[in-house]
Amino acid sequence: MKYCIANWKMNMLKADAHSYFTKLKCLINKDKQFNEIKMIICPPYTLVDFIYGGFEYLLDEGTFYAQLGVQDFNPNKDGAYTGEISINMILDSSSIEWAIIGHSERRSLFKESNEFINLKVRAALDNGIRPILCVGETLKERETDKTEEVLYYQLKHSLLDVSCTDKDFLIAYEPIWAIGTGRNADNDTIESANSMIKSILKNLKYKIEKPKIIYGGSVNNNNAKNLSKICNLDGFLIGGASLDADQFYAIYNTLKLTIGD
Ligand code: PGA
Hints:
This protein is an alpha/beta fold. The protein is built from ten helices and ten strands. The chain has a single domain (2-259), classed as Aldolase class I (TIM Barrel), CATH 3.20.20.70. It has helices at residues 14-30, 48-59, 87-92, 104-109, 114-126, 139-143, 147-158, 187-204, 224-227, 245-259, and strands at 2-7, 37-42, 66-70, 96-101, 130-135, 163-164, 170-173, 207-208, 212-216, 235-238. Strands 1-2-3-4-5-7-9-10 form an eight-stranded parallel beta barrel, surrounded by five helices. Strands 6-8 form a two-stranded parallel sheet. Helix 1 (14-30) links the parallel strand 1 (2-7) and strand 2 (37-42). The longest helix has 18 residues, at 187-204. Bound molecules: 2-phosphoglycolic acid (PGA). Residues 7, 174, 179-180, 216-219, 237-241 line the site of 2-phosphoglycolic acid. 2-phosphoglycolic acid binds at residues 7, 174, 179-180, 216-219, 237-241.
């Protein structure tokens, strides 16, 4: 199974989501269905029910795997946290199966710590939501040879006391210097980061069985074909390019080629 995940970030209104899914439906209908790639859309929370209500038939087609995720949530069940969306609210929206956790924008703009991210990973798993945990280094950290140290620190603290046998536990390697910059990491860099992540998890002896590792950072329909040649890669987390249905679907199709039809 490979994963093609859209992170819409703080973009799209109802009318945009409607055109997007209408377009996606046409594209999907034209193609033979392929269920080895899971498409996951993470819209802003305000659009989750709108998408589920209007396009459930598309998401639940049976031969086509598309699911919904959130971009973040608060691990507390309820309480005085003005503006937050709690884990219980996520569960109340019964269409949500995934949650992006620890995205670098949350870490840097909203000062989220690995300890808080750890609470989210555990809350997600305890409640049947599958985590897409983001890790990655800054350019300075890469240039000073600190990538492995940074990945170790992030994984150690954000996965503390986590045990998961679900094969759908995703770790997104997202080097910060590649996010939204138009400058994707090259294949060797991604391959070596993925190996680092696997060996760190092994050394930490955390009970995460077969974590899947995906890549995010300026993936688009021009570079997806080359990036999908990386042998230990299980898919993509896509920001900017996922806002365009044609482009997102083209990337999805590229992943198809890696599995064969
Ligand atoms: P990008 O974003 O594809 O626009 O670089 C990726 C992400 O933030 O997950």
